[in-house]
Amino acid sequence: MNKDKLPKQEENFSDWYNQVIQRAELADYAPVRGCMVVRPYGWSIWENIQSALDERFKQTGHVNAAFPLFIPMSFLEKEKEHVEGFSPELAVVTIGGGQELEEPLVVRPTSETIIGHMYAKWIKSYRDLPVLINQWANVVRWEMRTRLFLRTLEFYWQEGHTAHETAEEAENETRKMLDVYTDFAVNVAAVPVIPGLKSDSEKFAGAVRSYTIEAMMGDTKALQSGTSHNLGQNFAKAFEIQYLDRNNELQYCWTTSWGLSTRFVGAVIMTHGDDQGLVLPPRLAPIQIVIVPIFRKEEEQSAVMQTVEKVSEMLSTFRVKIDDRTEMTPGFKFNDWELRGVPLRIEIGPKDVQNESVIAARRDIPGRDGKIKINLTEISQKIPGLLDEIHNNMLAKATKFRDDHILQPEDYESFKSCIEENWALSYWCGSTSCEAKIKEDTKATIRCLPLDQDDDQQGSCIVCGKSANKKAYFARAY
Questions:
Q1: CA nearest to 27, candidates 226, 18, 290
Q2: What is the pLDDT of residue 1?
Q3: Do 182 and 282 meet the contact criterion of CB atoms below 8 Å apart?
Q4: Which residues contact 471 (CB under 8 A, 6 or more apart)?
Q5: Distance (Å, rounded) from C-alpha 236 to C-alpha 335?
Q6: Residue 58 belongs to what H/E stretch?
Q7: Rounded CA gap, 472 and 426, in Å?
Q8: 164 and 132 in contact (C-beta within 8 Å)?
Q9: What is the pLDDT of residue 455?
Q10: Are 248 and 198 in contact (CB under 8 A)?
Q11: DSSP code of residue 176
Q12: Which of 202, 348, 368, 398 is the most exposed place for a label (fewest CB within 10 A)?
C-alpha cells in the first residue's frame, strides 16, 4: 500500500476517487481499455449489494434466470428507437471459430430484445402472466470516456424484465421496483437518493416512461444510481409478445425493465468517503468490525489474544476481521482500516484486558470523538446498536449535505451560478428547447422530476418564463 497521503477531496475529487479505489484494493485497471478488474474487497461490496437486492426481489415475487451474452443484430433492429439509442455503444462479433458469421452478434448492452424473443415463445395466455424475471449479468457498452465503477466498457448489474396483462399492472411494477431501489439505497447503503421521473430526452431508449433514483456525490455532482422503465407495448409489438385474454382475444403484453449496476459501488464511495479514504455503511461493508490487538511484550500477547478471541466469538453474527499482523504497528493498522472504510474498529491492549473493557472507534466520526469505552460484559448488547447508530449518522450526514446543496434560484442568471457547485430545483415548462439551452449553457441536465409534486402548483419556467406546473432537479452529472 502506498504510504503517501490521499489527495484531499476539495483539491482534486476525481484524483481522490481514483486513488482511493486502488489503494483500498477495490478495483484495478484491466489491460483492455475502459475495463476494470474488480478485486476481492470491491467484489465483496458488490456481493452484499446483490444479497440485499436479491432478497427484496424475491420478496416481491421475482425469480432469477440467465439469458445469453450474444444477441443477433436483427433483434436490436426490430425496435428502432432502442437500436438508435444504443448504436454508438455496441460491441459486435463478426467472426467466430475463424469463420465470418452469417449474422453479426451483439455483445449484450442490455437484454430487452433477447428476453422479448423468449417471452414471445413462453407466453400464450393470460394465465401465463405476469412473468417476473431478473438476471444477474455482465453487459458491454463501448463508452469513450471511462472511470472505474462509474462508466466502464464492461460492468456487472441486475436487469429485471417483466410482462403484464394491463398498462396499470406494468406501471405499478415499474413504480414498485423504483421503491425497492429507494429502500435499498436509504436503508442499506445510507445513500439518500431522490426518486423521480426522467424527462423524455433522458429516458431509456424504447421506454414510455423512465424512473430513476438520483444521488448527490461528495463533489455535488449527480449520479444516476438505478432506473426502472415502463416499456409500454413497444417491445411486445416488436417481438410479438402476445397472449389470449380472458375473452379469448389476442392482446399484446405490457412490459417493464429495471436495473442497478456496479456503478452503485461508486455511489457509496463518493457519497460517504473522506480525506482518509472509504467510509462504508455497516450493512454493506465486507468487514463490519476489525479487532486490533495491541501489545509490546511477548508476555502481554497471550492475555491480549485470549480477549481478542473472546470478543470475536461474542460478535460472531457480524463480519469480523482480527488484524493479527505482527510486522505492522498499531498506528499503521489504524490508518489501513480507515482507508478501507471499516465501520468499527475495536482496540484491545493490556490495560483493556485488565479493565475488562475495549475501545471502539467509529469510522464515521474521526478522532477521539468517535472512540467509546465498552465493558466486555456489554459488548454483545451494545455493538448492534452502535452499528445502527453509524448507519443512521451516515445517512443523516449525507442527507444534510444533499439538502444544503439543493437551491431554488429565482431567475436564469442565478440558476447558472447555482449549477456551478449545487443542484437547482426549478420550474420547467416541459419544452425540449429550454432543456437543451440549460445543457448548452451550464452542462447540467434534468436529473428527474420529483414524484411528490402538487399538480396544482403554478410557477414560471426558469429558462423562458412561461407558465409551468412541474419542478425538476437540474445538476451536472457523472
A1: 18
A2: 43
A3: no
A4: 425, 426, 427, 428, 449, 450, 453, 457, 459
A5: 55
A6: helix 40-59
A7: 6
A8: no
A9: 82
A10: no
A11: H
A12: 368
Residue 40's identity, in one-letter code, is P
pTM assigned to the model: 0.95
Q: Which residue has the cell 421521473?
A: 197
Check if the beta carbon of residue 260 is closer than 8 Å to that of residue 53: yes
C-alpha cell at 326: 505482527
CA 289 to chain centroid, in Å, comes to 23
Residue type, 328: M
Instruction: Determine if residue 248 is left, alpha or beta; phi over 0 gives left, psi from -120 to 50 gives alpha, anything else beta.
Output: left
Task: Indicate left, alpha or beta for 25 from its phi (over 0: left) and psi (-120 to 50: alpha).
Answer: left
Strand segments (E) across 54-205: 63-64, 70-72, 91-96, 99-107, 131-140, 154-164, 194-197
Contact 278, 24 (CB under 8 A): yes
The position carrying cell 389476442 is: 250
Looking at residue 202, what DSSP letter applies? G
**Bridge partner residues of 468 (DSSP):** 459
Let me know how long the chain is: 478
Q: Which of 236, 233, 230 is nearest to 120 (CA)?
A: 236
Are the CB atoms for 179 and 185 separated by under 8 Å? Answer: no
Q: Using one digit for the tens of pLDDT, what is the confidence trace for 148-192?
A: 999 999 999 999 999 999 999 999 999 999 999 999 999 999 999
Q: What is the CA radius of gyration of the chain?
A: 25
pLDDT band at residue 78 using 50, 70 and 90 as cut-offs? confident
Q: Is 448 in contact with 197 (CB distance < 8 Å)?
A: yes
Nearest to 191 by CA among 283, 275, 276, 257: 283
472: which 3 cell numbers? Answer: 425538476
* Residue 5, C-alpha cell as written in the block: 497521503
Q: How far apart are CA 177 and CA 285, in angstroms?
A: 24
Q: Are 188 and 52 in contact (CB under 8 A)?
A: yes
Whole-angstrom CA distances from 459 to 42, 387, 464, 468, 469 are: 46, 44, 12, 5, 6
Domains defined along the chain, listed by start:
13-272 (3.30.930.10), 289-390 (3.40.50.800), 406-475 (3.30.110.30)
Residue 168 CA to its chain's centroid (Å): 27
Q: Which three cell numbers stand for residue 437?
A: 439551452
Angle made by CA atoms 271, 85, 241, in degrees to the nearest 5: 105
